[in-house]
Amino acid sequence: MYEQYDVIAAEYARTFPDDFASRPFDRALVRAFAGLVHQSGGDSVLDVGCGPGQATAQLGAAGLRTHAIDGSPAMVSIARQRHPHATYQIADMASLPYADGAFAGVCAWYSIIHTPADRLGGLFGEFSRVLADPGWLLLGFQTDAAPLIFDEAFGHKVDMTFLRHDVTAVHEALLAAGFTVYATSKRERLQHLNETAAQAFVIAHQGPIR
Q1: At 121, is the secondary structure helix, strand, or coil?
Q2: What is the pTM assigned to this prediction?
């Protein structure tokens, strides 16, 4: 899948320069997540599947020391140029190149959209591994709609399937990975921004809250 993003990275980044500017509710959720990380005594977070760095920028603006990874070298290059405050690596989020307990928080902002539901538990287990105790996880994903399949994007031939996850299934996968769900929010699709599905957001934690 990462090679598909290499093909469209430049056009994608130009088309979506800052999704948060027109989505204040989503921006507020990232800020709330940052507040929970700070309240627990941490300040380092990992943005997995960072793309061109929109969420990376928001995490940094909220006062967090941010590391970011993506499997697409083209996306990492764009993110590094746009948001140089963060530390970047090219890596697969299913096999993170970090030590156990390295971060106080993990953000997966629309990064699970290519992960089938039956593999979410294993992915969340990898997120849990790199989290300190306590540690916080923020998920953003689409929900309540059928998968979206593309064979063309931005004038390029692609083979991309965007999964819309059921919130209950995400909760179950989090619990199986040892997380406790802290908060869940959902907003309806914004038709004026051409969204095609409702948006779901989950904050979870491992270990006792401090």
Answers
A1: helix
A2: 0.96
Tokens coding 36: 């929970």
Using one digit for the tens of pLDDT, what is the confidence trace for 89-103? Answer: 999 999 999 999 999
67 bridge partner residues:
46, 87
DSSP 48-91: ES-TTSHHHHHHHHTT-EEEEEES-HHHHHHHHHH-TTSEEEE-
8 Å CB contact between 161 and 99: no
Task: Find the helix packing angle between 24-39 and 54-61, rounded to 10°.
Answer: 50
Nearest to 67 by CA among 29, 23, 104, 121: 104
Angle between helix axes 2-15 and 73-82 (nearest 10 degrees) is 30
What residues does 136 pair with on adjacent strands? 105, 205
